[in-house]
Write a structure and sequence with these properties.
Helices cover 8% and strands 50% of the residues. With 261 residues, it is mostly beta strands. Residues 12-26 have low confidence and may be disordered.
Length: 261
């Protein structure tokens, strides 16, 4: 399948997934979930009884010309007050090689996000996230456990986000790390008081390398989310791994759409 046909198929699937609408939460422009478009996530779950569906296309330019690309989809639901449940899946080319990088292709990931505390004058908004990633894709190895602690703090002109993540892989190969850690620090802000339908964001992340004895991965990202309708927004992001493996990502580009209903 050509790149053009693959992209068309991804967007058709996204349109089917996101069809239909109901009244949306007015705050969804700044409700951040991982990969929409950056690694950072905020501590606010999807509103009670609301759905949020997203689709994107990601292209990674790697050192050594071993580039990869593919679509990703996610769906989140406000299952209860302060509780979000969701699912996500992503496909990429070169699945066997990407499996060694810790990038799944076709694995189904389920999660629950629970808000522990609302933001006050003296403390940030706090949440915990629990997830399971099942080996349903190509070159998959085992079921992975994912845990995260999330904090969001609002200031006069921007919001600051901190994420700490832990993952334990259900199966590994020789030389591969079974337990992985990641820390993300980022922010989002409105570019101007008049431009209230757009939010800009950036983050930096540090995470364990998938391979033992390899350098820790340091990545920087920047992006934007723009509202194009009462319940729909588009997003784009770009990032680069500054340290890591020899075939690390020199440039990652992502474009996508989110619909809340």
């Amino acid at each position: 399948m050509s790149n053009r046909r693959a992209a068309a198929a991804a967007w058709i699937a996204a349109a089917l997934l996101l069809a239909g609408s109901r009244r949306a939460d007015a705050q969804f422009l700044s409700d951040l979930e991982p990969e929409r478009p950056l690694a950072m996530e905020d501590a606010r779950p999807v509103s009670f009884h609301a759905f949020s569906g997203s689709a994107d296309w990601t292209y990674s330019v790697r050192k050594g010309d071993l580039n990869d690309y593919g679509p990703g989809f996610s769906l989140a639901y406000g299952a209860a007050r302060n509780l979000e449940a969701g699912a996500a899946i992503r496909w990429v080319t070169r699945p066997e090689r990407n499996a060694d990088r810790g990038i799944a292709s076709g694995d189904i990931a389920l999660h629950a996000l629970y808000r522990l505390a609302d933001e006050t004058a003296s403390r940030p908004e706090l949440a915990v996230r629990v997830g399971l990633q099942f080996p349903t894709g190509l070159a998959s190895k085992g079921t992975d456990l994912q845990l995260a602690a999330l904090a969001t703090r609002s200031f006069d002109g921007f919001r600051l986000h901190g994420n700490v993540r832990y993952a334990r892989l259900g199966a590994t190969v020789v030389g591969e790390r079974q337990e992985r850690y990641e820390g993300v620090l980022g922010f989002d802000f409105l570019p101007s008081r008049r431009l209230t339908d757009t939010v800009l964001l950036a983050d930096v992340s540090v995470r364990s390398n998938t391979v033992l004895q390899e350098k820790t991965i340091l990545e920087i990202e920047a992006g934007a989310r723009r509202k194009i309708g009462p319940q729909t927004l588009v997003f784009l992001g770009a990032g680069s791994e500054l340290t890591g493996r020899t075939d690390r990502t020199r440039l990652k580009l992502r474009i996508g759409i989110t619909h809340v209903y």
